[in-house]
Specification:
The chain is an alpha/beta fold. The protein folds into three domains: 9-157, 3-Layer(aba) Sandwich (Rossmann fold), CATH 3.40.50; 180-412, Alpha-Beta Horseshoe (pyruvate-formate lyase- activating enzyme); 418-474, OB fold (Dihydrolipoamide Acetyltransferase, E2P) (Beta Barrel), CATH 2.40.50. 32% of the residues lie in helices and 22% in strands. The chain is built from 14 helices and 22 strands. Strands 1, 2, 3, 4, 5, 6 and 7 form a seven-stranded mixed sheet that branches. A five-stranded mixed β-barrel has the order 18-19-20-22-21. Strand 16 (334-341), helix 12 (348-361) and strand 17 (365-370) form a beta-alpha-beta unit. Helix 8 runs parallel beside helix 9 and helix 12 (348-361) packs parallel to helix 14. The radius of gyration is 22 Å and the shape is globular. It starts with 20 loop residues before the first strand and ends with a strand. Bound molecules: S-adenosyl-L-homocysteine, iron/sulfur cluster and FE3-S4 cluster.
Length: 476
């Protein structure tokens, strides 16, 4: 493989806690217009994936990218609204960006993504230095919006679409390590979990043409990529029908189509919803060795009354049964989750139910959050955000502590076993060590062996672990 390693971000999986990573370009730009674009992305993997669509649209206009916002002519910030602190971070960053207008009056500052969609024209009133507010379904309109902004206008396009999937736009892989890529398979969400802003910021659920997904994965395979992560807010409800009605593809069928593109290409996906994940999907995972043994299955709470108030449409027993099905059909499959603590009216007993569920299932990873009321959501309208901040923090700490125990236990169980690892770069601490990920998505660190390079698969014997990482050595 040619030298594909680029400095910077190697995005591993959806993690909304990731903040503001400037994306660097891995690609060529067409017919330069002499102007530079800087994009910074916040939020989930879907937002990072959207930034790659935005970059593609902007490169077609002749922009080139820069990783230094101070030298940019256009600054985009692709934003997240999921929790209040995500929005605060963006506002602070906008203040820094705004400062460059003092000496660069023509610079255009655009707010993209979920916060743009949530706040719409209000953003222009609240943030005087912002020129463009562009929602997630309006990125095809960017060339026209930029041209008008160049004339000094301040504009908003937050029209949501029932059809837009950007299926025909080839994403420009940003900050890529040349090994792993995201592929969006659907947009929007119809679930209306009561705490969640996403259905309002991303609009109705729609699935992308299966052929365009398979084509994109084929292109990635030809370009030497070794791992794709299929993205959607609820991948299990993927459903695409061809215009003449002759082809019907559900998520299990899509997984099989993607897995068959290249048996050397790992396939991952995120996020699964407990109410929708089917045995058919699990059997498809079992059938194809290149579909990784890893499922992110957000539970949110271990208590059925909480789950009902959250409008998750499953209860504790249903969730336990789904995990039992995973362990039956895929005995080596790692399961990770998301948890919200301190949701409206959550009692101490109900919090204990979450801790018990975590202890019973021993998740491999978890993203754990304090409930943050979002304006306009069902929960904001119907229920009081009544758990005091200090109780929320204490509960979160207990949940984190439980997860440390479970995660560590899962890693300890891997010691002495041989892992198939895809090398994705070098250890952050030392370039004498490779870093990679196991099939189950654990980070594995092991000494560099000159016969191998990033992008190769190796067999690694796990010999020890820290709280979050396996440490081992290559075995032939
Ligand atoms: N579509 C995915 C999750 C998308 S948002 C799913 O349904 O699982 C990612 C995570 O953010 C959620 O799983 C939830 O745990 C958390 N989250 C969403 N809204 C939140 C809020 N208002 N406060 C705190 N955490 C929230
Ligand atoms: Fe939000 Fe629920 Fe949709 Fe996930 S499934 S994006 S939590 S509404
Ligand atoms: Fe955030 Fe929007 Fe994703 S709210 S989590 S960037 S869908």
């Amino acid at each position: 493989m040619e030298e594909l390693l680029k400095p910077g971000l190697s995005v591993k999986e959806h993690d909304e806690s990731r903040q503001g990573e400037a994306l660097m370009l891995d690609g060529q730009q067409n017919a330069p217009n002499g102007r530079k674009l800087y994009i910074e992305s916040y939020g989930c993997a879907m937002n990072f994936s959207d930034s790659e669509i935005v970059a593609s649209v902007m490169l077609d206009m002749g922009f080139e990218t820069t990783s230094n916002y101070k030298e940019a002519d256009v600054i985009f910030i692709n934003t997240c609204s999921i929790r209040d602190n995500a929005e605060q971070r963006v506002r602070n960053r906008l203040r820094e960006f705004g400062a460059i207008k003092k000496h660069k009056k023509d610079a255009v500052i655009g707010v993209l993504g979920c916060m743009a969609e949530r706040l719409k024209a209000k953003f222009l009133e609240e943030e005087k230095l912002v020129d463009l507010v562009v929602g997630p379904d309006a990125y095809r309109d960017l060339p026209s919006l930029i041209n008008q902004a160049d004339e000094g206008e301040r504009l908003v396009n937050v029209i949501l679409s029932r059809e837009e999937t950007y299926a025909d736009i080839s994403p420009i892989r940003l900050n890529s390590n040349g090994i792993s890529a995201f592929v969006s398979i659907m947009r929007g969400c119809d679930n209306m979990c009561s705490f969640c802003v996403v259905p309002f910021t991303r609009g109705r659920e729609r699935s992308r043409d299966a052929h365009s997904i398979v084509n994109e994965v084929q292109e990635l395979s030809k370009a030497g990529y070794r791992e794709v992560t299929l993205l959607g807010q609820n991948v299990d409800s993927y459903k695409w029908t061809s215009e003449d009605g002759s082809e019907n593809v559900n998520f299990a069928a899509l997984l099989a189509l993607v897995a068959e593109v290249d048996s050397n290409m790992r396939v991952r996906f995120s996020t699964s919803h407990p109410k929708d994940i089917t045995d058919e999907v699990l059997h498809t995972m079992a059938k194809y060795p290149n579909i990784c043994n890893y499922i992110h299955l957000p539970v949110q709470s271990g208590n059925s009354r909480m789950l009902e108030l959250m409008n998750r449409t499953y209860d504790r027993e249903w969730y336990l049964e789904r995990v039992a099905a995973i362990r039956r059909i895929l005995p080596d499959c790692a399961v990770s989750t998301d948890i919200i603590t301190g949701f409206c009216t959550e009692t101490e007993q109900e919090h204990q139910d979450t801790l018990r569920l975590m202890a019973e299932l021993d998740f491999s990873f978890a993203y754990m959050y304090i409930y943050s009321e979002r304006p306009g959501t069902l929960a904001a309208k119907r229920y009081e955000d009544d758990i005091p901040a200090e109780v929320k923090s204490r509960r979160l700490n207990e949940i984190i502590e439980q997860q440390h125990k479970s995660g560590h236990k899962r890693l300890l169980a891997q010691i002495g076993k041989i892992q198939e690892v895809l090398i994705d770069g070098f250890s952050k601490k030392s370039d004498k060590d490779f870093s990679g990920r196991s099939d189950q998505n654990a980070t594995v660190i092991f000494p560099v062996d000159e016969r191998y390079k990033p992008g190769d698969y190796v067999k690694v014997l796990a010999e020890s672990c820290t709280t979050a990482t396996l440490i081992g050595k290559i075995v032939d």
